[in-house]
Amino acid sequence: MPNGIHQHARDTELISFDRQGELPAATYVSTDTAVKAMELFGKHYRWDNPIRSIGVRGAETLERAVDAIRQRFGANNIQRCAMLQDWRLTGFIPKADHVIHPISFFR
Q1: CA-wise closest residue to 5 among 58, 61, 60
Q2: Which strands, in side-by-side order, build the sheet including 16-22?
Q3: What are the residue boundaries of the structural domains of the chain, listed by start?
Q4: Which residues does residue 88 pair with via DSSP β-bridges, in sequence order?
Q5: What is this structure's pTM?
Q6: Which of 40, 58, 83, 99 gives the lowest tally of CB atoms within 10 Å of its CB?
Q7: What is the mean pLDDT of each run of 10 residues along the chain (107 residues)?
C-alpha cells in the first residue's frame, strides 16, 4: 500500500522532471494514486512541449513491506526480474560487500 507517490515526466525535447507527494493515507485504490499523480503533473508541467513519457510509482509503505519480508524470509525472496536473468546475480545480497561489473565492462 503506497502512501507516497513519485511522478516522472519527459517532453519531446527530452526535458524531464520528477515530483513526489504524499497521500493522506496508504491505499490500494488506483484512483487515489492517479488523482495525486495528475495533481503533481498539472502543478509542475508548463505545457511548452508535448509529453513523450510519463511514469508513476507508489512508495514508502511498499518499501517498508519489502524490507520486512526480506528480513523475515531472506534477502532473495523479493528480487527485481533483471536479477534472475544472470545466475551470478541471483545470489547477490545487497547488504554484503560485492563488486559487480556489467558484461560490457569485460569486453
Answers
A1: 58
A2: 16-22, 4-11, 51-59
A3: 4-78
A4: none
A5: 0.53
A6: 99
A7: 83 91 83 88 87 84 76 78 61 61 59
